[in-house]
Design a protein that fits this description.
The protein is built from 6 helices and 2 strands, in the order H-E-H-H-E-H-H-H. The protein has about 170 residues and is mostly helical. The chain has a two-stranded parallel sheet. The chain is globular and about 45 Å long. About 10% of the residues are buried.
Length: about 170
Amino acid sequence: MKMLESGGLELLTDGIRNADDDNPLGYYEYEAAKRLKDGDRSWVKNARGKVVKIISYLLTNLPEKNHYHVIFMQRDLDEVLASQRKMIIRRGENPDKIDDKKMKTILHNHLNEINAWIDQQDNIARIDMPYKQIVNDPHLYIEKLTQFLGFPLDTEPMIRVVDPDLYRQRS
């Protein structure tokens, strides 16, 4: 999200969730987006032409009448699980509530389902962006992102905000 903002795109965020040890630059979230699961789509009209972070579990709740450009971040599931475990521990919750192997299966199945769903949507254009590779070579992926969006981005500031030190859960 920071890359997109640095490239000149307008983000739809609310600043409700503050930066913390898990995300020292902030979360770039829009709380209303989480209400998609409850059927609240009233905020979507305010998002037109802007970037909004939506977790994959909520994509199927977006209104079908709109066209979307989805930038789908790809990250190794073991890294996701390690990151989530750390966050859960920091919050003082039980990290073993669900076994990592079971959670990895759940996430893997979800990704298969959401990928199949996106492939069937005529109103969604999608680009996959591999997190690890972006950290290692942002130039290449910023160029791909520019082509996908169809207009130029301010690439130098985008490259400068990539901070390999924030990539802490590596597999």
